[in-house]
């Protein structure tokens, strides 16, 4: 049977996944969440005309003769009186502007002696005043729908006195690994065993991209154990199992899941690594069956699970950023599968990207995955690529 092309697989996944809906949260819990509305300001900022500098509030028409300082306006406490001709008010950065003044002269440009003030320099009427609403006005959109909130957005919303707002719900992702050979990190590793690295990988990936991971643990390669573990798949938005989807005698996960209600949409995609990936519907929950080799599982996450998570999260991007880079060496002709090669790119001082892919591409290797910063994409049946050719890359570190 012909393998399903990567793009067809992605379309099938995205057609079967919906936005999760919205919830109202407090600003202090909002880092990394995705705005589900245009969030508008409850305040005008600055709320009043304010001094931008430490100095003196004056009338510009008045400044050629000596002035008398009659009071003070400080941040948080304005000057209550009225300033007349020949008068000035001491003022500080952020303090409300004196209503009867039109200019602030910075303190470096005056000579003060007791109450007497001589203005030595002032370029223009209206200097050093921050106008009310100069930053934003009440009702203005501060953050657009589908923005991923970072520290700057949070500060802006706080300044607009927006304490609560709507964001998209986070996908809850159940993660199950399978394999008799696996022991958890930190255990004593006996003969024939390896450490489970895929669960930490997927817990971290799901968290990093805005989901909530739920670790179902590791099942032995027996129907009994897999069944016991999948009984725990409840109240989640996505289910991923890792390992056991290939064609070996112990690759039982697909059959056991089918008995428990899995409807397979596709199995095996024209990609390398990651070919044996399974996708389907497990009793209403989108299900990904990932191959066990860590780099294969990672590439499948990047291509398929991440776009599905982003769609659930209401994001307006489909996954990691793609770019183009100049090859630093020749690469042999591609195969009938898209090849995602671990690579390393850098930018020169003109911002031009260069990429090389001399790391081992064995899908069992993790060090070469951790050492790479991009995936170099070789299309199906790509001809030989030469040093200097432009090639597609996926930036796995922005
Ligand atoms: P499988 O897909 O179950 O045939 O596994 C393929 C390879 O990936 C085997 O060498 C497994 O030992 C390895 N593997 C499977 N699951 C994990 C895991 N959770 N952590 C690390 N390696 C794994
Ligand atoms: Mg296995």
Structure, described:
By secondary structure, the protein is an alpha/beta fold. It has 4 domains: 6-20 and 170-313, Molybdenum Cofactor Biosythetic Enzyme, Chain A (3-Layer(aba) Sandwich), CATH 3.40.980.10; 22-43 and 138-168, Molybdopterin biosynthesis moea protein, domain 2 (Alpha-Beta Complex), CATH 3.90.105.10; 50-130, Molybdopterin biosynthesis moea protein, domain 3 (Molybdopterin biosynthesis moeA protein, domain 3, Beta Complex); 322-395, Beta Barrel (Beta-clip). The protein is built from 7 helices and 26 strands. It has helices at 6-15, 151-159, 198-208, 223-230, 253-259, 294-312, 367-371, and strands at residues 22-26, 39-40, 50-51, 55-58, 67-73, 87-91, 103-106, 110-113, 116-119, 129-130, 141-143, 164-168, 172-178, 182-183, 194-195, 212-219, 238-242, 262-267, 271-272, 278-282, 285-290, 322-327, 338-347, 353-356, 374-378, 390-395. It has a 6-stranded mixed beta sheet, with no helix packed on it. Strands 16-13-17-21-20-18 form a 6-stranded mixed beta sheet, with helices on both faces. A hairpin with a 2-residue loop joins strand 8 and strand 9 (116-119). Helix 1 packs parallel to helix 6 and helix 3 packs parallel to helix 6. The longest helix is centred in the last third of the chain and has 19 residues, at 294-312. The two termini are 37 Å apart. Bound molecules: adenosine monophosphate (AMP) and magnesium ion.
